[in-house]
Design goal:
mainly alpha; Growth Hormone, Chain: A; 13 helices; disordered C terminus
Length: 315
Amino acid sequence: RALAVGLISLLNNICFCGMSVLLPLYVGEARWDLSNIHPGAASQLAGFMFGFVGLFQAFVMMNVFHFCRRRFGTLHACAIGSILHGLGVAMVGYMPRLGYIWVCLTCAALGNGICRPAYTYYLSTIANKSHVTQTLALIDVTLNAAMVIGAQLTQVFAYYGDSAAFTLAGTAAFFQALITLILYLTEKRQKKTSGDQELRAAIPKDEFIKEISESLVMILEKRNYDLEQRAAQQVLRGILDQAFPFLRPGGPDNREHMEDVYMLLTSLGRDADASDIQYRFGFDPVDSYLQHRPLSTLNTRSRATGRNMLLDSLT
């Protein structure tokens, strides 16, 4: 999925970088006759256009993006923004008048202001927590690659005209939207498959209790524990208490609560953490030798001794 987001970022930057290099050439064409107004009128107009795109994109990223993400979801918002971005860029070459370009730039800035933070946000959510920095660096790598590829659209502009160049740049954003939708459908299918597997693995409560009871009885029989029913029930309760410990309510300053935490950490073998709590509250040390090692790992004599100690504690 991270590689798919990298491809989305590459296509997005190709579209934007393509527009960046093509727009000054387009505005400076002789048919607009801007040189008669002022020798540097074309360059100034291109600068104003880029300034407008930057300001409007910033506004969209801070306001519209969050609304779209909450309303449609991250990937859906990215797809919608990609389509608007590509549509705005592709239409530039077909405008009959130069003033209509502002409509195209508004559409492109709106779309890019939505899709760019969307795929960055999505990448941060799927990134491995231990490799977040390396994963997010993928955005910068694709940006540099897009600067190389997008700049070559000037060759298309020179040989095939402005319409073909802007259309090709906008097509990159359309492919971006397509990959985003494929990523969404794949993710949705994986979640559905995972949910179906969990549903198939579920069993009725009575059947679950029966299986657990049979398993625990089998464990007791294999260990050769010759126990009465009441004593066996107490042993099983002890097993469950260790598996699902109950902590008395309270915070880190409550002695009773921290005593339970201390006993739990000791039973789990977290001696360093347990020692800190013991030193802080002055608890007596706990002999956790039998808690750390299963009875099956001890020799026969030690196992019998452990069993007798357990029986003595129960009676």
